[in-house]
Design a protein that fits this description.
By secondary structure, the protein is mainly alpha-helical. It contains two helices and two strands. The radius of gyration is 17 Å and the shape is elongated.
């Protein structure tokens, strides 16, 4: 698993799962797209958990449509 980049072995500490690398430019573009929507959610009084639930539901829908 280490050779495949799935985990990283840390001597005397154990192993940790590698988080997939996401390009900085992609992160900035997505944050730019989501920023106004998150601001609107806050402005209308949605909690963080409610907002995250909406995002999770949308992700699930997209994944289902891909199958």
């Amino acid at each position: 698993m280490e050779r495949k980049g799935i985990i990283r072995i840390i001597p005397k500490s154990g192993a940790v799962v590698n988080i997939p690398f996401v390009d900085d430019a992609i992160q900035k573009r997505i944050a730019g797209d989501l920023g106004p929507i998150i601001n609107e959610a806050i402005a209308i009084g949605l909690t963080e958990n409610e907002t995250l639930a909406i995002v999770r539901n949308l992700i699930s829908q997209v994944k289902e449509e891909e199958q």
